[in-house]
Amino acid sequence: MSKTTLLIAILSLFSFSVFAQKANVTGVLTDGSEKTPVYNSVVALLTPKDSILYTFTRSDKKGNFDLKNVKAGNYIVMTSHRQYADYLEDITVNETEKNLGTIPLLSKINALREVIIKTGSIRIKGDTTSYRASDFVVSANANVEELLKKLPGIQVDKNGAIKAMGETVQKVLVDGEEFFGDDPGMAVKNLRADAVKEVQVFDKKSDQAEFTGIDDGETKKTINLKLKEDKKKGYFGKIDGAGEPLSGSDSRYNTNFMFSNFKGKRKISAFLLNGNTGQDGLSWQDSDKFGGGNNDVSMSMDDDGNVDYEWTGGNNDEEPNVDTQNGFIKNTNAGLQYSNKWNDKQTLNLTPNYNKQIYTNNNSRKTQTQVGETQLNENASKVSNVNRSNFKLNAIYDVKLDSLNSLRITAKTNFYTTESDEFTSGNTTGNDGLLKNKQLKTFTTDSDKTSISASILYKHKFAKPRRTFSVNATGNTLNSNANNFLKSLNESYEGGDFSNRVDVDQNKIGEKTNQNLNLNVTYSEPIGKKYAMQFAYQVTQNKGESDYLTYDYSDLTGNYDVLVNSLSNQFNQTIITNKPNIKLSYNSKKINYNFGSGIGFTSFDLEDQTLNKEYKRNYTNFFPTANFSYKYKSNSNLRINYQGATKQPTLDQLQPLRDNQDFFNQTLGNPDLKQSFTNSFNLFNSTYSILTETQFYQSFSYRTTSNLISYSRVIDPESAQTITKPINTNGNYSFNLYVGYGFKLKKLDLQVNINPNINYNKSVNSINLSTNDSKILNSGFSVYLNKSKAKKYDISLSNNFSNSRNATSQNDEIKSFNTNNLALDIGVYFREKWKLSTDYNLSSRQKTVDFQDNLTNQLWNARLQRTFKNDEFTAYILVNDILNQNIGIRRYVYENSITEEQNSRLKRYAMIGFTWNFKNKGEKTNK
């Protein structure tokens, strides 16, 4: 019996059900290659639960079809034609008219080579890769982060950073909208995996590019989590609590609450996280986004193959470092999100968030620095206590004024408060072991920061397609107030004998304001069907004011009222750039490219009010840009882009202020700094084969910077005192190569991912007024294996090897060492309801010439759980660091220095916990 005859026979049994329906489902079938209508194809609607035929029709000579009187609900639309591959897609009918638009069908001849698959675990359509979440095995009540770890081409590291096809994921959306701001971790850590229907990975273009259709080369690797339809009705959430039994006041605990409620197009979500096991603390990237970070950074490579960014210059109200991988932290994180849409014209997204951290850490550090023929050995220990909190409020309002005009208003605020104290003790010796200096220091911080930003984007489409006009105005301000106290005892030695002592007892008061204004006007004009021109004009203004006053303690008055002129300064800056821009673009089905250039006219107006000096400079720069993309297959894409950009020195770098927070490592600002200019070249290629389930992607980037804002260090080998000052240097460049290859061994049902990588960085600085070239080469190779079976087992094995090499022109010796991390993760089910999971990590760090100890430690964790009532409830017991070997040791090379650092870490503990996953009454958990 033919497929068509069977459909007609089944239809006759159910035909009575269609007469009471109200909606019409329409669309057009075309040949995917020839774009011609597809005639006489069966178009059927199936019910998703049991795939029973609901109704069907046939396409007419123009390819049109019309399914009449369809009851509102969820369906699977299916087409069937003897010359074309079947097409299936899930749809929801909730309107009087449901238009599916044009559906391109692929001939069966080409179906094995190029196919858009609407079924199966993975499908590719254009630049979007979609994963059906239910086809990937995760444990009961797992979060989205666990799901992502199972998806081919996606990696989640131990710190929660996400990479897709070798690129860092910068945004995670939920049903196309931001979820608690733009922090990817909020969605993946707090949403349940069983609420997700589909995971989409794509390169999100800028708002401007999406509006004009002209690719500007600015993309962000993005993940969109599409929720199941039943999860978008009513409510769902979870409550989780765990604590350490039979312990004292310093016991471990975690409490988590997550709730989402949907009603029509309104969504309300809330979460509350509280604990002292280091969960959900602010990362370095978070601090940077919240205004607590610092852009004045240099790069080094640590022994795990990670890039380490550090600014050795001064920042007078710098936030204390909080590394949630080390130390002990008590964290409270709460947030609320409200989003709604009215009349398909107005959309509001409102997200308040509160975070509080109480952090303590003990840090010890050994650093060996080569200065000519002299080696300086520094030993220091530091005890840190930090209490900080911040409140953020983000709001986005979109309104469609009419069919041609729209407006987006964005506002963000952040209020940041920090109290901290640090106690440091240290000394420096020469290679003969004799003392050169000794220091005891206490530094307390009380700072407040307020960050406010807003933007308005107006967009207008003309009647002529691709002719557009837009205006984007943004502004932000950051106000910082710091009240710091420094007390230090500093002793100098000559030949190992005491020479002199300097005591410091000072109050440092800093007030700083940074304001940035930006106006961008853009007009695009089509030239034929595929070409277009874009004209833009941008004006930016950066204003900064810094008042920093240092007072000595007076024994006569008992107050800090003696102004130290050499450590005080008032400084203003104004930097204005005007940049006209022109760009030509070409867009076709497979090839897109654009190129153009802007001309920037920048003026510096710097005023040192303390010294009554003024610095004025003008610059003219070209800003070339070029982007090319080639979709040589439906599931393959090649992207190449080039961009030139400037970077302005910051207020901290320009202000001629001496920072004596560390008496033997002081810093100076430099008002003579120039802006830097960077040429960036990036290439990315990715391809995925549905039939063989293999993915292959390569990424290459190259950057070179002229007038790089680096630094000069003057090191006295006798006293071991260092004076650091930012300077401009040339001859700086870096490149990075990353390759990923993933495939499935079908006979073994084993997923394999292989990732070789290499990166190289050459930076130029100055040591004792002599140019110093630092060259860092890091190479690595990782392998990941995964095998799983639903409700039976889940096994993952990975190994990551890396080699780091560092050489400087100051020292002919090459610093080289290897590291290796072996990880095993096993989950085994017993009688479906019981699960035992355990993970094991073996980390090995090779000894070096400077540090003669091999650093090897083992981390072993385990968890036993039992689920009840259709997995609604879960009881569990877990043990962290069973072997009690969690050590916070790392080694890293930085220019002419190598450092071994150790931090206190949370070691062995056990907790008993209980989780309640709740949802609408009457709904059953999908297994």
UniProtKB/TrEMBL annotation:
| MF terms (GO), sorted A to Z | carbohydrate binding
Indicate the transmembrane segments per the record: none
Alphabetical list of Gene3D superfamilies matching this protein: Carboxypeptidase-like, regulatory domain
Q: Which domain of life is it from?
A: Bacteria
Keywords from UniProt, A to Z, are: Signal
N-terminal signal peptide: 1-20
Q: Where is the Outer membrane protein beta-barrel domain?
A: 460-823
Name of this chain's protein: Outer membrane beta-barrel protein
- Organism from which the protein derives: Flavobacterium franklandianum
